[in-house]
């Protein structure tokens, strides 16, 4: 059963963030948090929760009269999978530029920068002259130029 459907909407992501931050939660707790940020009715939020259960992203457990929801995948793992999917869909030649764009728009701590610098030093040792394109012909502009 535990096959995840990682395609979630922006609204469902809002719900997941709440569950990831709180651990086990009732729908009421989710609604309370999300209504600080969004003008969503309780029924709408419950619909999102229901979809996430269907997608296998949330599980329910009954405790007395209440249903408790918890995430079936950790936030870090989810973010990694989402990023992997994005990078699978861009030409390998564009990886560097895409990563640079992410760095450019991020506010970073000195610690973050130290970690990136160490990583880049390691990457330097295995750097290639030119990253080969691994795209299906017709799906990127590498051949055109
Ligand atoms: Zn390509």
Automatic annotation (TrEMBL):
<dbReference type="InterPro" id="IPR036388">
    <property type="entry name" value="WH-like_DNA-bd_sf"/>
</dbReference>
<keyword id="KW-0238">DNA-binding</keyword>
<protein>
    <submittedName>
        <fullName>Copper transport repressor, CopY/TcrY family</fullName>
    </submittedName>
</protein>
<comment type="similarity">
    <text>Belongs to the BlaI transcriptional regulatory family.</text>
</comment>
<dbReference type="InterPro" id="IPR014071">
    <property type="entry name" value="Cu_transp_CopY/TcrY"/>
</dbReference>
<dbReference type="GO" id="GO:0045892">
    <property type="term" value="P:negative regulation of DNA-templated transcription"/>
</dbReference>
<dbReference type="InterPro" id="IPR005650">
    <property type="entry name" value="BlaI_family"/>
</dbReference>
<dbReference type="GO" id="GO:0003677">
    <property type="term" value="F:DNA binding"/>
</dbReference>
<keyword id="KW-0805">Transcription regulation</keyword>
<dbReference type="InterPro" id="IPR036390">
    <property type="entry name" value="WH_DNA-bd_sf"/>
</dbReference>
<dbReference type="Pfam" id="PF03965">
    <property type="entry name" value="Penicillinase_R"/>
</dbReference>
<keyword id="KW-0804">Transcription</keyword>
């Amino acid at each position: 059963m535990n096959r995840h459907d990682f395609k979630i909407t922006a609204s469902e992501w809002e719900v997941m963030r709440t569950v990831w931050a709180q651990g086990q939660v009732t729908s009421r707790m989710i609604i309370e948090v999300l209504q600080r940020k969004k003008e969503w009715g309780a029924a709408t939020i419950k619909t999102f929760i229901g979809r996430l259960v269907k997608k296998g992203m949330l599980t329910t457990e009954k405790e007395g009269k209440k249903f408790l929801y918890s995430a079936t995948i950790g936030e870090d793992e989810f973010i990694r999978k989402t990023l992997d999917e994005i990078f699978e869909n861009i030409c390998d030649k564009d990886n560097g530029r895409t990563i640079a764009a992410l760095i450019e728009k991020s506010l970073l701590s000195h610690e973050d920068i130290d970690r990136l610098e160490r990583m880049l030093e390691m990457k330097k040792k295995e750097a290639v002259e030119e990253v080969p394109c691994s795209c299906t012909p017709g799906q990127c502009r590498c051949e055109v130029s």
